[in-house]
Amino acid sequence: MKSKTFALGAAPRVTFRSCVGDLRVHSWDQPGVQVLAGCEKDLATIVESEGGIEVSSLMPATVHAPAESTVVLEGCSGEVHATGLAVVMVNKHRGEVSLHQTRQAELNALHGDASVTEADTLAVTVMHGDLRCRSLSNGVTIRDLHGDVLLRHVGGDSRLSGITGDITLSDHQGSLQASAVTGDLRLAGTLRSGTSTIDILGDIYLSLDPGSDVLLDLEARLGRVRSSAALLDSTGSAHRLKGRLGNGTARLFVTSSSGDIRLGSETAGDERQAEDTEAEEVTTNLGRGVEERLARGRRWRAHVAPSPRAAAAESLAEERLAILHMLADGKINAAQAAELLQAMETQD
Q1: Which of 15, 38, 139, 232 is the most buried (most CB within 10 A)?
Q2: Which residues have C-beta within 8 Å of that of residue 342, sequence separation ≥ 6?
Q3: What's the CA gap between 52 and 15, in Å, rounded?
Q4: How far apart are alpha carbons 325 and 263 in whole angstroms?
Q5: Domain residues of the chain, as ranges?
Q6: Residues 6 or more apart from 315 whose CB is under 8 A from it?
Q7: pLDDT at 256
Q8: Which residues share a beta bridge with 53?
C-alpha cells in the first residue's frame, strides 16, 4: 500500500470525480489529507489545488482527512464509508453509502442503499434504494425516493415527499410533513410539541406513548379509522376521528387517501422490544445479503448498463411519482390517483 500526504490545512476540500471502487474516509487530528492507494500510479492521478485535492479514475482505498473537511463524490461508483467529517456531498453515485458522525450530509441522484447515523442534517434528492437513519439532531429533508425509509431518534423538523416505499419513524421530536407517499407509514413515540401533517395514499399506523401531549385529527377518505388509545374529548365516525392525549399542545393532522388509519398506544418496553427485533432482523438480512451486495458492487464497478427489466422498473417508478405530484398539485383527486396506481400495478 502506497501513501501520500497533502498539506492542505484544517478544512480542506476533497473531491472524487468519476472514480470506480470502494472508499473509506476517516477523520484524523492532522492538518492535511493522507491518501492510501494500491500503487504509485494511482497516487499520480491526484491533482492538488488551493485548499483541496481532486481524485479521478480509480478510487483510493482509504483517505484520512481533518474533521472540518468537505468531501464530495461526483459521478462515482462503489461502496462508500465516511466517518467524522464536517460535510459529505454525494452526487450521481452508484453504490451503497454509509455516513457516520457527519454534520451535514447531502445525497443526490443516488442508486443504492444509504445509512446515516449521528448526523446534524440530511438532505436527499432523488434516490433509488432504501434509507436508514438514526440519531439526526436537526431533521431530514427527503424528496423523490424510490425505496423504504427508516428514521429513528430524529430531532428538528422533517420534510418527506415523493416516496414510493414504506416509511417508519420512531422517536421523532420535531414537526413532520409527509406527502405524496404511496406506501404505508408507521409513527411511534412521544409527541409533545410542534405541528405535523401526514397526507399519504397507504395505511397509517400510529403508536403513541401515553405520555404524549397532542391534539389529533385523523381522516381515512376511502378506508376506516380504528383506535385503541384512551383519547380525551374524542368525536368521529368510521372515516374520521378527533381527540387528544394530554392537553393537546402538539398538533397532528393525518390523512390517508386510500388506506386505513390505526391509532394505538405503546410503552417504553414495547419500543425497546421493537428495537431488539429490528436489530435481529438487520443482522439476519446482512448475512443473507452479502452475496447480493457483492454482486451489485461488481456490476457497478464494471459500469454495466441497466437491463431492460431494470429500466422498465425505473420507468414505472417515475410514472408513480408523476401521479403523486399530480395529486399533490390538485390536478387529480385521491380516488383518481388510487385508480391510476392500481392500473399500473395490474400492467406490471
Answers
A1: 139
A2: none
A3: 8
A4: 27
A5: 1-129, 139-284+322-348
A6: none
A7: 96
A8: 14, 48
C-alpha cell at 263: 391509532
Q: Rounded distance, CA 246 to CA 249, Å?
A: 8
Q: What was the pLDDT predicted at 67?
A: 97
Report pLDDT digits (tens) over 10-67.
999 999 999 999 999 999 999 899 999 877 777 777 899 888 999 987 777 899 999 9
d(CA 234, CA 217): 10
Q: What are phi and psi of 285, to 5 degrees?
A: -65, -35
Check if the beta carbon of residue 118 is closer than 8 Å to that of residue 100.
Answer: yes
What grid cell was written down for 300?
Answer: 457497478
Distance CA 95, CA 23 (A): 11
Residues in the chain with pLDDT values less than 50: 267-277, 279-306
Structure confidence by residue, pLDDT tens digits, 162-179: 999 999 999 999 999 999
- What does 215-240 look like in DSSP terms, one character per residue? EEEEEESSS-EEE-S--EEEEE-SSE
Cβ count near 264 (within 10 Å) = 14
Q: Are 46 and 102 in contact (CB under 8 A)?
A: no
Phi/psi zone of residue 118: left (φ > 0), alpha (ψ -120 to 50 degrees), beta? left
Axis crossing angle, helix 290-301 with helix 268-288, rounded to the nearest 10: 60
Q: How deeply is 268 buried, as exposed, middle or buried, from its count of CB atoms within 10 A (0-12, 13-18, 19+)?
A: exposed
Its pTM stands at 0.80
Query: In the prediction, which pLDDT does 42 show?
Result: 73
The bridge status of strand 195-200 relative to strand 250-256 is parallel
Task: Name the grid cell of 302.
Answer: 464494471
β-pair type (104-111, 121-128):
parallel
3-state helix, strand, coil in the chain (%, to 5): 20, 50, 30
Length of the chain: 348
Cβ burial 32-52 (10 Å sphere, 16+ → b, else e): ebbbbbeeeebbeebeeeeeb
